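User: Predict the complex.
Assistant: Input components as received:
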Amino acid sequence: MLRVDDLDVWFGFPPDRVDAVKRASFSVAEGESFGLVGESGSGKSTILRAITGLIDSWSGTIEVAGQAVAGQKRDRAFHKTVQMVFQDPYASLHPRHSVDRVLSETLKLQGMGDIDSRITRLLEDVGLGQGFRFRYPHQLSGGQRQRVAIARALAAEPRLLLLDEPTSALDVSVQAEILNLLTDLRAEHGLTYVMVSHDLSVVGHMCDRLAVMRGGRIEEIMTVDQLRHGGATEDYTRHLIAASAGYERA
Amino acid sequence: MSAPLLSVKNLRVAFPTRQGVFEAVRGVSFDLGRERLGVVGESGSGKSMTGRAVLGLVRPPGKVSADKLELEGQSILNLPERQMRAIRGNRISMVMQDPKFSLNPVMKIGDQIIEAYRLHAGGAKDAARQKALEMLRAVQIRDPERVMGAYPHEVSGGMGQRIMIAMMLAPDPEILIADEPTSALDVSVRTEVLNIMDGLVRDRGMGLIFISHDLNLVAQFCDRVLIMYAGRIVETLAAKDLHNARHPYTQGLLNSLPRLDHPVERLAVLQRQDSWRDGPLEGERTETDFPGGL
């Protein structure tokens, strides 16, 4: 479904050039859920942004559903296949557009017909009732906003969903609801996920395989079973697992 | 057994709105000794407001009222701003959540620490500078001379948070209120910052109020935990007993966390009940109980 090979991403020009991602390679099979974990600045979100065409300074190969992409240009078919959900539900929705407008605009852009009934179905899919259709973002809670953002991503009926820390701005109780929703949607629509998170336990819950990143490089790719049973081979991964297990009094 | 450092009885914070009076904190009572006290709850549960109310940082039209709000036997409820300034920062300090918004972006870090220190302790600039260097070393900043001359945007988030802690600790406060001090940090830096605060509580006998939404972290780091829901403390527990919590809200929060060592197909979702807002509270008798003693 997704193949990333030898991906380099950089910002700026020498001598101030920053290499945000260095020689990253991984592939995600159809229907799989793949996690990217690492500390801030390790380049995990940058990979997602390069895939969706939000960054143009990259080299290497990115293939989505067998089609190689280049630069920052993406055709309409790409956006029908790939959609992204962003970290901050407070920043990713237009404050002066109602839920109805956010969704209908996306549907129109995707060239969909029958918009009215599609919005109804999308809202039901993400567990929001019809009562939310004409609300504005400030009338919604954080969890409800993230549901709207997910509905917007689903509007194009994508096959690959890129999730950039979808729950890190939410309370744990709301996080559980959103993670359950994502699990249900994946089963229902046969979606493929690539999920970025700094929280190992969230990735452990949602994903089948994961890549651990550090300083722009992929340190290790392993299955979640290996993660659970201490099968990490790199020192850094073990350190990360120990640190995220909680606090040990020194 | 000595008297508690901070004693709070029936603290209320109210804000008048167009829909009537909104009470953000509704009758919170607790005593703080020389211990690590965790305050946990979801956003909007009033945990930060409790911290701000203690420091007198609730701005009008917000109103703070309490039966008792005492710092070592002296009432600090609604003190005039002048007197409050002598206490705030000097005897009670607060570390805010995000160093990016709490440090002055156009002032060198060294100058900020020196300014904060001299405001409270006075003294010569040279002595204050020495103190600032010493504080930066205390929070394990390796090259304090360089950091003193740097601007906030030149340091990382973890370092910024440690600088905040250094600044707050310079006047040797008796109580430190830390409002989500680690939620903007990566896990590996988080451990370092917690170690620093842990050491300070142990070595200086400081009282720490640790506000967080991370239940597991609080359970491991603190001595005692208050669970807040809708402006009230619904349960008070010794941290080591957190996993035997009795209140359904605490249990619900714990169950909604995904866990690496315990995989589940679906996460349990918290079912809120109206009765939690005003229902009976768990463990009220532990109000003045200090595990480990004072």
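The two ends of chain B are 6 Å apart (CA to CA).
Let me know if you want any component modeled separately.
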